[in-house]
# Entry
Amino acid sequence: MDGLIHQILSGIATGGIYASVALALVMIYQATHHVNFAQGEMATFSTYIALTLIQAGLSYWVAFAATFVISFVMGVLIERVLMRPMANAPILSSVGVFIGLLLIFSSISGWIFGYTIKTFPSPFETSKPLLGGYVSGHELGSTAVTLVVLLSVYLFFRHTRLGLAMRAAAYNPASARLVGIRVGWMLALGWGLAAGIGAIAGCMVAPIVFLDPNMMAGILLYSFAGALLGGIGNPLGAVLGGFAVGVIENLGGAYLVGTELKLTLALVIIVAVLVVKPSGLLGKAVQSRV
Amino acid sequence: MSGSNAAGTGALTAGRGAAVASVLGAAVAAAFLFSDYHLFQLTLVVVYAIAILGLTIVTGFNGQISLGHGAFYAIGAYTTAILMDRYDMPYWATLPFSAVVCAGVGFLIGLPALRLGGLYLALTTFALAVATPQVLKHKLIEDYTGGVQGIVISKPDPPFDLPIDADQWLYLFTLAVGCVMFLLAWNLLRGRIGRAMMAIRDHAVAAEAMGIDIAMLKTRTFAVSAMFTGIAGSLGAIAVQFVAPDSFSVFLSIFLFVGLVVGGVASIPGAIYGALFIQFVPNVADQLSKAAPGAVYGILLIAVLYLAPGGAAGFVRSMTRRLCRMVRPGG
# Structure
C-alpha cells in the first residue's frame, strides 16, 4: 500500500510536468492547429540557458525568471519569423518546419553545451523525504510550481483583457480582427507563453532525469499522450490528461510493464485514445461535413 | 501538385526512357569502378532510396504525414536479421517475410490513426519512432533480438561463382531489388489506385463522392508504404551486417522525412535525390562538428520548404523544362 501511494504521488509530480508541456502544446494547437514537435527540444535548450545562468553565479530563482523571459522572447521570434509565413501552408510544410526546428535546437544544444549528461540543481530541500516519506522535497516543490503556473495561466486567460483577446484570436480570428484585436501578435504571444511554460517544465524535470540534449523526447511523448487523452483542443483536458498520464506511467512502470517499456506505454495510450475516444475525455467530437 | 506526368508517374516517353536507361547503366557500371567503401555507400543510397520511396507513396501521393517510418525500417531489418541468425535462412529469402510483416504492422498502426485526419498519424508515428528502440531492447524478446547488443549477420557471397567480390554482389543485388521496387511504385502510382490516392490527397470530400473508400485506401497505402520501407530495412541490415536498437532511434525516421522533403515530396526520382542527400551531406557536414549534420538538415529542411517546396526533383524538373525550351524554341 505504501508503495502504491508513493507511486501515485510521484506520478502526480511528473504528471504536473507533462500537464505543463501538454498545455503548451494545446495553446499552440488551439490558435493555429499546429502540433509543435519541437516543443521538447526548445524546452531543453531553455533548460541549458538556465543552467548556464546558474553557473554564471545568478541565484536559482533569478536565473529561472530570466530563462522564462528569454524563452518567451525566443518563442515570439520563432512565430514572427518562421511560423507566420506558414499560416496557410499545407500541414506537411508546418510539420516540416517543426521537424527542422527540432533538429536545429537539438544540435545547437549539443554543439554549445556538449553531449555529456549534466546534473541540474533543484531549488528545493531534497535531503530529507516529506509527508511521511512519500515524496521528495523536489517532487513536492515542482508540483507546487507547476500548479502555480497552471493557475496563473488560467487566471490570465480568464480574467485579463489580454487573455480574452488571445482567446478570441484563437477562437475566431476573422471576427477578432474586426473588433480590433491584432491577431498575429496574439499568436506570437501564445507562442512566447508556450515556450516559457516549456522552459519551466524543463527546469523542473531536469533534476530528476538529468540534462542532455535529448532530455525532453520522452516527456514530449507523454505530453502528446496527455493532450490527446484530455482532448487536444481543450486546455483543461490537456492538464488533467497530463496528470493522468503521469500516474498511469508510474503505476504501469511499477506494476505492469517495468521501466523498460515506459515509452511504449505512451504509444499505447495514444493508440487507445484514437481507437476508443478520438476526441479525448473532454474534447468536442469533430464532425466533418461531406 | 497537379500534373501526374511531371511527378514521374506518367507514360514512359522516349526522353524519359533514355534518362532512366543511362542512370541505370551508370549505376551498374559503378559496381566495377568504385572501391569497396564507396560501393558500400552507394548500396546504402539505394537502401535509403527505397525507404524514402515508401514515404513518397504515403506522404507525397496520399498526403498522410508519417514521422515514424524508421520503425518499419527497424522491423524489416530485425526480421531479416532474426531469420538469418536463428533460422539460417538465405538473405534473399528473408525479403518476402519482412515485406509481409511490415505491411501487416503498417496496416495495424494505420487503422486507428488514419480514420482521423492530418496530424493524428504524424503524432502516432512519431510516438512509434520514439518507442521503437525501447521495444527492441526489451528482455521478453531478447532471445531473438539479442537485446542491446543486437545481431551480427554474415555478408552474403556472390552466387554461381560469379567473378565479382562480395561488396560488388551486395551492391548489384540491392540495386536489382531497388529497380523492382521502383518499377512497382511507378506502376502502382500511375494506375487507378494511384489516381485514387492522389484524389484523396487533393480533395478528400470529392474523392469520397466519387466512391473511393477513403479510410480503407489510406490504410492500405500506409501498409504498402511500410512494406517498401521494411524491405529497405532488410537490405540495409544485410549491407551493414549488423542490427542494434540504437541505430533505429527517432532520428532515423526524421532523417528519412528530411530526405523526402529535400528530394521532392511527390516525385519518384525525388526519392533518389533524397537518398543521395541523407547519405552524403552528413559525411561533409561531419567534418565541421558532431552537431553540424543535424543543424544542416534542419536549416536545409526549412529552407527547402520556404524556397523550393518541390525539392530537388522540382528543381531538376524546371531545369530540364527550361533546357528543352532552349533547344527547341517554340516547341
